[in-house]
Amino acid sequence: MIQLATISLLVVACGSDGGEVDYSKHEVISGQAQLDPVAGTAQLPLDAYSASFAEDNIVDYAIDLKLAKCAQEEGVPLQAIDRRTFSPRVGYRTFGIWVLDEAAKYGYDVRPRTADEQKILESNTAVAGTEDTIERCLNEAVDSFPRVQQVETLAGRGEIESYDLTMSDAEAKAIIADWNSCVEEEGLSLVEGATLQPNTEGASTEQVLEIAIIDVQCKQKLNVVQQLADIQASYQTVFITENQAALNAERAKIDETIAIAEAYIGENG
Questions:
Q1: 185 FRET partner, CA 20 to 30 A, in 25, 71, 106, 158?
Q2: pTM of the predicted model, to two decimals?
């Protein structure tokens, strides 16, 4: 249960390891969250303790290589898919869309895969009657490269908790209220009960793009995403300080799996 007390947000939360986090020590540092509007990404403190997109793709490739090898030994013509060159399709959207170029092109939709990426994904054609073989081989491959499940980790809990605290923060509420006023002055309505979400119900594709542009322009004008991300980073910093050893242990497990995957790729890729 999160308890709020005054603007300083004196919060004591039980950690998954039985400890407590005193968030009253959080300090917002401008620019602590490193936003990259070109790539549409952000780097927050807790990200260092989770597998990145690139690291996930290394493990995925190792799994695909082992899957393909197993399937081929059973007479199933399956090829490994190397996603290591793929770019993220969904950028940093914790506080909604915020990259103007993508908003103008895709609105609230996810950027589509490139033609080359789609071609790679479609390179394997399912062969009737091979489903059992593929499932068995896939299970063996996945078991060979054990992942740390983000939703079950301390880092994952810290990310959720820091977001919830940000949404309850008095400063963040003021920032969001300013954005609300900005989009409403531009003639947009908001989704009742939602945060940073203009109403697009009944809008045509062209109108949705226009709404998305106004949404992002207001965020840029008011520096909404950077400020909210910095607030979230401040809570994550406290969380890390008070759970450092456990977070290091989680990261070590991730690094171990990546090392095993890289070694397998080196031998079989």
A1: 106
A2: 0.87
